Each structure stands twice: as C-alpha cells, then as structure tokens.
C-alpha cells in the first residue's frame, strides 16, 4: 500500500542521486539541491535503499546525479534495482555516455531516459556546459531511441537571449529522432528571493503555451506531474515544466529523494530536514527500522511554497 504524507500526497517515486560528479559544468546547475559529496554509495547499498522504498509502496525509481552514467558500475546498479520489480526505472543524463550504455541499460531493465540538452548550436552548447560534447550528446539520444528505451525525453532549459529562439529547432530534432521535448522554465535559486541571474535569463513561456494550445491536435493534462499539459503538435509532443517553487508543483509532488551521501531528502528545495539513511543501514539496522526512517522523512514533507507565499 502506498504511503501518503500529512498533506495526503502519495509517495510513489524515489529519485536517487548516485553521484555528484559530472563531466559537464552547466552554468545554471543547482546540483539537485544536494550538498558537497564525500563518498558514493555502492550498488548493493543503492539496491537495499530501493528494496526498502518498494516496501512502503514506491513504484518508480529515477537515477540522477551529477551525471549517473559517469559511474562505471551503472549497468550493475540498474540491474539490481530492476530486479526488485518497480513499475518504472529511469535515468536522467546529459546523454554524452548514452551511445556507449543505451543497449546495456535496456537489457539491464532500464525503461526510459531523460536527456538534458539545451541547444543544437555548438557554440551555445560550449557556453552553457564549458565542454565540446554536443555531437556525443546528440548521438546518445539517437542511440537511446534506436535501442527501444521509451520514451526518450529531451529536457531543454529555456533561457532568454541564449537558446529561446531554438525551441522549434529542438522540437523538429525531437520529431526526427522520436524523442519528446520538455521545455523547462529556469528554476529560481537561493530559495525564495529573486536574483539577477533569473532577471537576466528567465524566459516567460505563457505566450508559447497559448500558441501550443492553438496549434495542438490534442492536449493531455498529467495529473501527478503538477497538472502540466502535454501538447501533441504536428506529429510531435511538447511539455512545459514550470519552476518547482510553486503551489501547483508542491500540491502534486509525489517524489522523495536520496542524496549521493545517502540522506533522505523530503523536498528538492530544502536542506534543513534531511534524514540520514546510509549510516543506520551500515550499522546493520533491519528493514523495519530503515522503513521508519523513510516514514520519518515523509512526515517531514511540508510544501515549500508555504514558506514563500
């Protein structure tokens, strides 16, 4: 039976950050709200965490980082997790290692993949990431779609003056490869206050949503994904992901996280209510005792927007 928090939100998804290492250096990255890393969890430890999560009704696992495919044991990790019997096992990646791993990950039990790619322009890619890996990322996306990982979603953080004029180019690339485009509105950092970074690069997508609604052959509302809409346009699919520090995101949040240090993180945008999981597990605590730590973290889930509004 799925556990709910005190706001009656079911906990159906666990995101496990398996590393804080990354091979690119995107200037807007907020590192998934995680703290500086001291060590990485082993595949067996990640497997145990997933087993306990399954015991409280978690149905979906997503592996993230950093860049999760930077770990040379990533296929083993996916294999161990998929053996538990989750409804869905996915990975968020920058795509630069997908050409190498896509087939093996599919065979290990990975269901789908989200690829972060903000531009198809080599100079813009190098400006954003400080690396020259664009072709590797594009080839990784193509390999993922060819390997029958489905769906392959392409996450594009839209930034004013940098890549906002590439939206339809990216949409056409996704149509050609068989991927789904997710347009991500820039996430506010430093908790609640606005800052110059947001002022400089934030791109308002309300007008785009109106255009999409007008052009779409069909529109689907995703209830457990912040009630956001999926637009079916000219044989392709587009979703717009609004910033996470808002009422709609919090109202429909069904996710809890594990940091690379093995701490349960009830809210993406907070670091003051973490629950240590890895040390009790290493001390030999039973599954029932570890389950209580999950329930403690879930009890700590308080909508972040309450602090801002």
UniProtKB/TrEMBL annotation:
Gene3D superfamilies: Aldolase class I. Its EC number is 4.1.99.22. [4Fe-4S] cluster 2 binds at residues 250, 253, 267. It is an enzyme of class 4 (lyase). GO terms for biological process: Mo-molybdopterin cofactor biosynthetic process. GTP binds at residues 15, 62, 92, 153, 255-257. One of its GO terms (molecular function) is S-adenosyl-L-methionine binding. PROSITE patterns: MOAA_NIFB_PQQE, RADICAL_SAM. PANTHER family: MOLYBDENUM COFACTOR BIOSYNTHESIS PROTEIN 1 (PTHR22960:SF0), MOLYBDOPTERIN COFACTOR SYNTHESIS PROTEIN A (PTHR22960). This is Probable GTP 3',8-cyclase. It comes from Methanobacterium subterraneum. The gene is moaA.
